[in-house]
Design goal:
single chain; Beta-Lactamase; about 15% strand; alpha+beta; 4 helices; 5 strands; about 35% helix; about 190 residues
């Protein structure tokens, strides 16, 4: 199910992708570049990370640069929310300067969506999804809410995946506890006749 989420991401990047092939002519293909998407809880646990940076050795692990940028985002947008201009709070788009990071790379934009804005029973309110992309991609985004729509979809799909995984884990845990009860037979037809 996680791969379904990032099948949606295929339309948001012009980098080569192996999972999904975009067969539209180049003139119709969207050109937004996203470096990474991360879902984390406000307690600090990173639930999911996917890097689309070609230089990343493991797409599920943030590079040091991405970690710096995510930490800068958390400091500015979540911890320092009251100090942000109202336009940034309402647009949920923050420009992270290269000076905020140890890297000398170009300026990066962080766009985010949180679970509290979804009004969904699938996504916990303390989850936040953030997309990082280069500032030069701002003019190529294709619509004012394109990235945030992608983030909302990603949160919903990951919420469904998370709920499914935790319910399977809970049911297997409860079935193993029933098997340890020592009642002799559990009515599953395994007893010798």
């Amino acid at each position: 199910l996680v791969f379904v989420t990032f099948a949606n991401l295929a339309w948001a990047t012009d980098r080569p992708r192996s999972v999904v092939t975009d067969r539209r002519p180049d003139a119709q293909r969207p050109t937004t570049m996203i470096d990474s998407i991360t879902i984390f809880s406000k307690s600090g646990a990173v639930l999911y990370h996917r890097s689309l940076d070609a230089s990343s050795s493991d797409p599920s692990t943030p590079s040091p640069r991405e970690s710096d940028l995510i930490n800068s985002f958390v400091s500015a947008a979540l911890i320092g929310r009251d100090r942000l201009p109202s336009s940034v709070r309402s647009s949920k788009r923050l420009i992270l300067s290269a000076a905020a990071s140890t890297s000398s790379a170009a300026t990066t934009v962080a766009e985010w969506e949180d679970g509290s804005s979804l009004k969904s029973n699938v996504v916990p309110t303390d989850w936040t999804a953030v997309a990082l992309y280069p500032e030069v991609a701002l003019g190529r985004r294709g619509g004012p809410d394109r990235i945030r729509t992608l983030l909302r979809s990603t949160l919903r799909e990951y919420g469904l995946f998370f709920r499914s995984v935790t319910s399977v884990a809970a049911s297997s845990s409860s079935s193993s506890k029933r098997g340890e009860g020592g009642s002799g037979g559990d009515g599953d037809g395994d007893a010798a006749e």
